[in-house]
Amino acid sequence: MIRTLLICTTLLCIHTAQAEPLRILTYNVLYGFNHAKAPEIGAKWIAEQKPDIVALQELNGFKQESLEKIAKKWNHDHAVILKERGFPVGLTANSGITVIEKRLDDMWHGYLHCKVKGMHIFVVHLSPAQHAFRMKEAKLVCAKAKPLLDAGDSVLILGDFNCNSPLDQKWLDTRPKDEETIDEKTAKRRAVNADPNSAVMTQFLALGLIDLVHAKQPTGELERGTFATRLLPKYRTDEQRKNKTWRIDFILADPTLAKRCTSARIPRDKEVDLISDHYPVEAIIEN
User: What is the pLDDT of residue 99?
Assistant: First the structure.
């Protein structure tokens, strides 16, 4: 009996040591995979990455049933969509998803708070147009995340933040000033959307959250940004893209999860230039 118990314990330890790492992906898929033109390309590319968890933004045109259906194409039997109108966010996984909160009040697009594999996951898509509104949204999400972090829970906040990071400010400051002539209306719109001192992302970093891609990638890769891909005509050539790309999609993790992160990157496979105007972001975390 004792010998059997020892053998079982040893096998369990070996199994635990060999557990596959978690692959986590966040992706703004541009109005439901390039305005519904590329769902098959998108599903095939995601399947090839073999992710365990996928956070999606701009699931326009999708409903709960259709999200479940496409998620099966990348071998995920579990899926949750925030809403079925406008610009929904969603979450899919190869294991169970517990929904904690679907928040729409006081949010531009809303956020999804779920628990997957023992981790609290917030899928966000912050305001694309108003800095003051983004600040309010960030404050709301941070208020939800802080007690979890204080309690030592595992927390991931990921998605399209529509803002710069203070961690990128050094190289952003080296970019030449935009001398494009704009009309008064455009100037006012840009002023409303401006994010002085990267104040939105600063709120998240102040909680102790770690920007995984920043921690794992060299500055040159960060400067290539997550927006925009070559899908957009004015971003097709290297010359057009020079000093015009932005890093606005992030995976933020609590310090303990961050220590277990072995890799984080911005995939730039040729297929993604057909799927969205955003590049996806991927992180691999030891399980």
Answer: 98
